[in-house]
Amino acid sequence: MSISASTPTAQPSGEYQPSKAMRGTADLLDSRVGVGKAVRFISRKIFPEHWSFLLGEIALWSFVVLILTGLFMTMFFEPSMTHTTYPEDALPVSHQGMEMSAAYASTVYMSFEVKGGLLMRQMHHWAALIFMAAIVTHMMRIFFTGAFRKPREINWLVGFTMLILGLLAGFSGYSLPDDVLSGNGLRIADGVAKAIPIIGSYASYGLFGGEFPGTDIVPRLFTVHILLIPGLIIALVTVHLILMVVHKHTQYPGVGRTDNNVVGYPAFPVYVAKMAGYFFIVFGFIALMGALIAINNVWNYGPYDPSPVSAGAQPDWYMLFLEGGLRLMPGWEVVIGGYTLSLNILIPGVVIPGLLFTFMAIYPFLEAAATKDVREHHVLDRPRNVPVRTALGVAWLSAFVILVLAGSNDLMATHFHLSINDITWAFRILFFVLPVVLFVVTKRICLGLQRRDRELALHGHETGRVVQMPNGAFMEVHKPLTDHERWILVAHEAKRPIEIEPATDRNGVARPGYRADSFRHKLSRFFYEDRIEPVTPAELAAAGHHGELEETGHHAEGIRGGAVALDHFPSTTHGSGDAESAAGGSVATLARSERR
After folding, report:
1. Cα–Cα distance between 79 and 105 in angstroms, integer?
2. Of 179, 161, 188, residue with least CA distance to 121
3. CA angle 430, 436, 442 (to 5 degrees)
4. In degrees rounded to 5, what are phi and psi of residue 85?
5. Quick check: 353 and 325 in contact, CB under 8 A?
6. Which of these, 281, 250, 275, lies nearest to 263 by C-alpha position?
7. For a FRET experiment, which of 9, 176, 332, 407 has its CA 20 to 30 Å from that of 315?
8. Is 150 helix (H, G, I), strand (E, B) or coil?
């Protein structure tokens, strides 16, 4: 039903009334594509409130900045390896009349002669670094809190694929200027491709269109960088957001938060307004970095020449692990049947990255196999309550960090006046030892924190206030927990190793599937054999028993301080405190809320 503009309406003063054009547009969209149902569905979605959920938004808005700045640069960049001479009247002076490729010339010209060109280049590069950092941090948050569990396994794989595409986007992007740094990166890629057994030389020829460096690699990387990878990332981001809406958002444990609800704010107008504001914050921060912090000044390196190799040249941080692995690996080669297998390149360039990323991709399915849990999970885990998962994540990160640091071993040697051989050997040892040590230490820390939580749930906060009982014993007054604190400490489930049936039945016949069950049982024991049982309701009820003590005319409530309940004490008023405590029972128990 349409409303005439001249028809008065009984509208309260100050209420927003959309214009006729807006109403007509909304009606057109709703009647043609059913946008009204989608808007109602999305606007009513509830999103929880926590700062760590912004990590995904940082990645999203950084990608938007990448798209915007990339569109600007495509108007001036020339993806060609054709030889040219830099103009005699263009900056910088050191490049005037120098022979170079058209790709390098257009990059330098864009930086010095195009208004805003250098700002766009540096914003694009900083946005790429922040984009990858946000993806890695976001995935680590998902990993440590268990947000990958059913029904989000597919979404985990979608995010993992975006991580791989981000690595490829970064590699293809910083290889485009055809300067010395990017050329060295392409030379490494050529070496890794040729190290692959049997198909290595064919892979290299196919990638470069002939012998390295060829004349086709920059145009091919340009197509991949601006068309193929962004298109795939946009598609995966869409799938990622759709699955997040369909599965509903995960939430941290707290009072009233269960797997059947979401406690938070509606998408419209609260969350939409926050997302819009956060975009401008991210955009402004990247613009500030692009304007004030120089990065990737290609004119300092010069055009690529395959003959020299520059010292102190490192790729961006997210590709530095590959450089570090190549620097740590000894020069091992194996000749098999007249064929030379370059282990010094194959292992750090293919095997180690394959193991690291394969572990990340399949971990949700390994944990599901260890638990046989088919339920949906929407409340996140506290990392301390899953010690093996947390320890594995820390071990994985330590191996990655060691490789990243090893990629700068030459800079460490020159800046700290150390032997590069000593640094290399230290990193070689740490790569194998540090993950194991950190796994053990992290697991023990998590178990220790669980024990502390158990004591805290049963007895409350220590106050440091010591009182003397009528019988002469000294007791510490404990402060009770709030409902929110108690919920967090006791709400998690007990996870135990799964049980399997014997290898044979009662007739001695081998049971089919026993080997698979045995592997799953061992995997489950690895995850959950060492554990701290969470506080049970019965233990909370026993610890929260209230009462008053009357002894020689004194009341216990004066000693409790409103926080501690004293069950009972020996009838004697003098003697050994330890003996009397042992005879008496609980002396500091949790004061449970009586509002239940």
Report:
1. 10
2. 179
3. 115
4. -115, 130
5. yes
6. 250
7. 332
8. coil
Q: Is 368 exposed, middle or buried (0-12, 13-18, 19+ CB in 10 A)?
A: middle
Where b means 16+ CB within 10 Å and e means fewer, 87-122 reads eeeeeeeebeeeebbbbbbbbbbbbeebeebbbbbb
DSSP string, 462-522: EEEEEEE-TTS-EEEEEEPPPHHHHHHHH-SPP--PPP---SB-TTSPBPTTHHHHHHHHH
Alpha carbons 452 and 298: distance in angstroms, whole number: 54
For 304, 501, 528, the CA distances from 524, given in Å and listed in that order, are 53, 14, 6
In the block, residue with structure tokens 């405590």: 581
User: Tokens representing 44?
Assistant: 């009513």
What are the C-alpha distances in Å from 205 to residues 208, 211, 216, 258, 298?
Answer: 5, 6, 11, 56, 27
pTM for the full predicted model? 0.84
3 state SS of 551: strand
pLDDT in tens, 219-265: 999 999 999 999 999 999 999 999 998 888 899 988 888 888 888 88
Strand-strand pairing, 554-555 and 83-85: unpaired
Identity of the residue numbered 432 = F
Distance CA 149, CA 365 (A): 9
The amino acid occupying position 342 is: S
Read off the tokens for 582: 């042992």
- Residue 308: pLDDT band (50, 70, 90) is low
The residues pairing with 589 across neighbouring beta strands, listed in sequence order, are 565
Beta bridge partners of 84: 100
